[in-house]
Amino acid sequence: MSTQALSTEQREGFFSWFFALTGKERRTFWSCKIGYALDAMDTQFLSFVIPTLIATWGLSKGDAGLIGTVTLLTSAAGGWIAGILSDRIGRVKALQITILWFAFFTVLCGLAQNFTQLLWARGLMGFGMGGEWTAGAILIGEVIRAKDRGKAVGMVQAGWAIGWGVSALLYALMFSLLPAEWAWRSLFLLGILPALFVIFIRRFVDEPEVYVAVKKKAARAEGQPSFWQIFSPKMLSVTLRAVLLTTGAQGGYYAITTWLPTFLKTERHLTVLGTGGYLAMVIVGSYVGYIVSAFLTDYLGRKKNFILFATGSMCIALAYTRLPVTDGVMLFLGFPLGFCVSGVFSGMGAFLTELFPTAIRGSGQGFSYNMGRAVGSLFPLMIGMSSQSMALGEAIGVFAGTAYGVMILAALTLPETAGKQLES
Prior knowledge:
The relative contact order is 0.14. α3 (about 25-55) packs antiparallel against α9 and α5 runs antiparallel to α9 (about 180-190). The chain contains 19 helices and no strands. The chain is mostly helical.
C-alpha cells in the first residue's frame, strides 16, 4: 500500500483524528487514559474483596455498604478540591498529586487490620479517586482541538472499563495463587503501581497552552480567579444546570448498578449474575458504549448524545425490572446494560470543559460533576428506604427513570457546545 493511499485511508477512517495529533497531544491522551484506567483498577478492587472481608472479618453488609458510601462522598469532595487546585497550580500538577494520593491510600487499605482502619484508608483514597477524574478530564479537554474533543475525552473515559477489566483479572489471578486472607491484601498492595506512572507524567506531559496563556494574563493583571465566580450572576444558571445534568447521570447509574443485582438475585432468583461471563459482558458493553458515545458526541452534538443514552438507560432499567427473563437472556442483557449506563458519561468531560471559561474551568467542572456525584450517591439509599413500602424493582424503576428524566431536561436547557473553541 502506498504512503498516499495510507494517508487517505487514515484521513477517512474513524481514528483519523488520532493520527492528526501532535506528539505532545498523544502523550497527554495516553497519560490521561492510563491514569483513569489505573484509578478504576484501584477503585474496583473493593467490590471483588467484599465477600472475603465479610467471611474473614465478619463484616455485615451494612459495614460494606458504609465503606462504599464513604468512598463516593469523599471522591466527590476530592474532585471538587482537585478542580480548584487545577486552576491554582495547574492541570498536570493536580493530576500527579491525585494519582499519588489514591495509590498511597490504596496500599494502606491492604495493610488495614480491622474495619475502622479500612474505612479510614478507603475514605481517604476516595479524595484522590475523584480528583483524578477532574484533573484528567480538564487536561485532555484543553489539549485536544475542538472538533475532536468529544472523541478524545470519551476514549479517555473508556479507560475506566479497561481498569475494571484489569482489576477482575488480577482478582482471579491473586485468588488462584494465594490463600484468601493474603489474596485480598495483595490486590490493594498492587495499588502502588499508579505511583510509578507519575514519573512518566512529570517528564513528558506539559500544561495546556490555553491554560498557560490565561495564567500569564492573570499574572499581568495581578489577579487570581476565585472559585466563587462559578456562582456569579453570569455563571450561576449554567453551574446549577450542569449539576442537574451530572446528578441525573450518576443518580441513574448508582440506582441501577447498586440495586439491580440484589433485585435479580432475590426476586427473580437468577444465578448468572455471579458468574465471570456476566461480568465480562457488562465490562465489554461498557467499553463499547464509551467508544460509540465518544464518536456520537462529536457527530450528533453533546445534547442529542446525552438524550440518546439517557433514554437507552431508562429502557434498560425498565427491561430488567419489568420483563420476565431467564439466566440465558440475562447473560446477553449484560452487554446493553454496560453499553447504555456507561455511554452516558462519555461526553461529560468534553461538555463540562466547554461550559466554563478557562480561568475557572477547574472550579466549575470539579464542582458540577462532583456535586452531582454526591447527590447521586443518595439514590441507592432512597431506593432502599422506598423498598420498604413498594417492590424493589418498582423502586429501582422510579428512581432510575426520575434520574435520567432530570438529565434529559437539563440537557435540553443547556447550550450546545460541540465544536466550541476554548478562549485563551
